Backbone:
């Protein structure tokens, strides 16, 4: 039976012209580290072959304070380590404004980008994504704001996160530059990008998919319900054959879809980061891949 094999080769980030690693490292909890600890985690990610680093202005926020902390910590590390910034493809996000909660007006996005650049201590980010769709922002205004970011030289490519298919299509139709990426929640336990058509749209438009929470918010590692346990069992079969852990099998399952989704690994443990390469070891037959899908659906396919 034929198997689908994954390779660690760099791939295009949509139509951006940027080349990135097939797995990214995310900084959701990064703001709680010291500069020395943070640099060690970044070095571990580099050693594991990661070149795409994902942060956001909201990362570090705990409900009361900490807005911008992850970006500020990364900015401190950049200041302490000249040349480090040039080794990575740097992505950040904006548009969440607690407690509003969202703002994608042109004026706010321009301010948010400038604030991110200041915290990061850089003049340009490679990818800027709108973190959550703002229902009160017309896509025409959002499109102009994103184009202005690129025209200004402050951003190389733009994308969105958590947009619906319709929201993504509407925005893309009003842009004169491509949407390089879309960052949805996608895991063996979160199938909406498959069932809702987002991955099909990504393949049609040549848009990169950056999958957040590829381990189902920890539910794949510690399944607590029948559905999660069924998915874990299906993953474990492939993981055991490849000699890797369940997390690596989950990342690999996400990456095997022809949309070539890029899972964002969120661990802040250097030893776990070092194991990122294990995601390229599993070999998926169609039956094994569909067994995970069926377990997640809780019913057989028609």
Residues:
């Amino acid at each position: 039976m034929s198997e689908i094999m994954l390779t660690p080769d760099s791939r295009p980030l949509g139509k951006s012209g940027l080349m990135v690693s097939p797995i990214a490292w995310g900084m959701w909890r990064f703001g709680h580290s010291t500069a020395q600890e943070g640099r060690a985690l970044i070095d571990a990610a580099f050693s594991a072959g990661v070149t795409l680093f994902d942060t956001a202005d909201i990362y570090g926020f705990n409900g009361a304070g900490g807005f911008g902390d992850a970006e500020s910590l990364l900015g401190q590390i950049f200041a302490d380590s000249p040349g480090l910034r040039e080794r990575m493809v740097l992505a950040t996000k904006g548009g969440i404004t607690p407690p509003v909660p969202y703002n994608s007006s042109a004026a706010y996005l321009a301010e948010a980008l400038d604030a991110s650049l200041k915290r990061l201590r850089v003049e340009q980010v490679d990818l800027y994504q709108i973190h959550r769709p703002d229902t009160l922002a017309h896509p025409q205004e959002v499109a102009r704001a994103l184009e202005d970011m690129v025209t200004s030289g402050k951003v190389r490519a733009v994308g969105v996160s958590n947009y619906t298919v319709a929201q993504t299509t509407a925005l893309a139709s009003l842009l004169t530059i491509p949407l390089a990426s879309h960052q949805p929640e996608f895991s063996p336990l979160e199938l909406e990008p498959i069932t809702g058509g987002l991955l099909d749209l990504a393949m049609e438009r040549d848009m990169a998919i950056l999958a957040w929470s590829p381990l189902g918010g920890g539910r794949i590692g510690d399944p607590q319900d029948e559905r999660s346990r069924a998915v874990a069992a299906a993953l474990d079969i492939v993981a055991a054959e490849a000699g890797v852990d369940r997390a690596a099998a989950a990342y690999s399952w996400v990456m095997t879809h022809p949309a070539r989704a890029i899972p964002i690994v969120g661990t802040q443990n250097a030893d776990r980061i070092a194991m990122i390469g294990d995601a390229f070891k599993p070999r998926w037959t169609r039956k094994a891949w569909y067994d995970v899908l069926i377990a997640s659906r809780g019913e057989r396919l028609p």
